[in-house]
């Protein structure tokens, strides 16, 4: 069964069982506690806690999706037969609509009846006991359900917290015991019974509080399902990755070829979701993946002796200067382009080539310096990283016998020491201020940055109104907020819209914002009961649950005649002239039906 057939079968299966099909969210999550979207449930986290209303937003208490994900914890393991950085997760979710019986039945029916596969065994939670008392009881209910479906005692295994309890994504959130389905000895589907909430700062580290409404959260890796369905031994031989793998240089060992195939796919999707290489957060991970691929590219075309010592010290320059990243990215679009319209070959290649040009200037120097080092330990490795940008993985790999004692733990200690020194220097520079503001949406490290994000925050309000006025209700849909993130450098605003904005539309939006800034309109707020606030026509973020009494910030002389008004907690400038010159730096796709604007102020 091809990956296209699996996708179609999965979505039709759950749509016929009254699930609303929801598009994949961006790899850039709304949740500030995680760098990337790592699971299908992340975009639905507020619906488990009651912070958002599923019936209002989806018209159903149950949804299904195919979510693009990135996980960074396994980067060092990529290259073996199963670890990946980018993958897709098939998932069905329920927010009080159904629970264990239905979820297990769905899992059984899909694997057995739809996919035609055989379940080897399943696992259930064995419970959690402390000082002789059950803090969380064994999941006997799931055992009974599986037995009713024909599984015997030998096919129902138990596992503890590490195997059969799904913790929250990030540091807090919904969680609960799981049951896992194994096919051909491989875990293909994890069904989580969300019935607890773990706090970010619990009074006790074992503080798991029952959720008011129990929910279902499942995850089934598309790559693994394709692998067992297509009866191939590794995920790299299934039809999602094999066509990419065949384009990698055959002269490199298979582990390295797998790394190139995996990382190239992750790079393409990260760029498509607006991530750019940098030295922090998501951009740091993207740069790390890019530079790993670039280094292997360099290896493939130069026969570096550190990689192949049996070929001699000199090495030989290959005729080809590239092993075909254009072809690899084109193949990725061929496989995924019909499902993820945000993928843009020209943009992906342009960003990759730009990073390639920058990194190649230091790579050769760094590798020469590496050859000079007699013993590569954590200190010398960090020096190579800091001075030449050589990633740990490349130093470890190309260092060969000289780097045998180097390990990630010691390198990370050196990296942390460097960060602490940098932070201490910044605190001294800014008079001892730490992070003075972090609401998730707004981040500022000192009073000066706080002033900047305040200006940018108010500019975001003007931007949303300008977008609605310029684009208006049309066949392309009405603009509504889909997320935002503001730092001292820029604002990022996501909004629902089905197509790319034209250059003329972008200029009209920018000009309209600047026009309102020049008018020096007052910015004020009124505090109202939520029901009354809604009657004012103020905009609000549909994913957020608001208290009974809310603040409505408005731009203009009164809330009734305001040019812009939104539910918001602040902070804001007092007059629009304080914002400064507004400039849109980029407009791009985030996911199907969602666009993103990045803007700055001067």
Automatic annotation (TrEMBL):
Taxonomic source organism: Candidatus Yanofskybacteria bacterium GW2011_GWA2_41_22
GO MF: alanine-tRNA ligase activity; aminoacyl-tRNA deacylase activity; ATP binding; tRNA binding
Protein name: alanine--tRNA ligase
Residue span(s) of domain Alanyl-transfer RNA synthetases family profile: 1-602
PROSITE patterns: AA_TRNA_LIGASE_II_ALA
BP GO annotations: alanyl-tRNA aminoacylation
Pfam families linked to this entry: tRNA-synt_2c (PF01411), tRNA_SAD (PF07973)
Gene3D superfamilies: 3.30.54.20, Bira Bifunctional Protein, Domain 2, Threonyl-trna Synthetase, Chain A, domain 2
EC number of this enzyme: 6.1.1.7
Record PANTHER family: ALANINE--TRNA LIGASE, CYTOPLASMIC (PTHR11777:SF9), ALANYL-TRNA SYNTHETASE (PTHR11777)
Alphabetical UniProt keywords: Aminoacyl-tRNA synthetase, ATP-binding, Ligase, Nucleotide-binding, Protein biosynthesis, RNA-binding, tRNA-binding
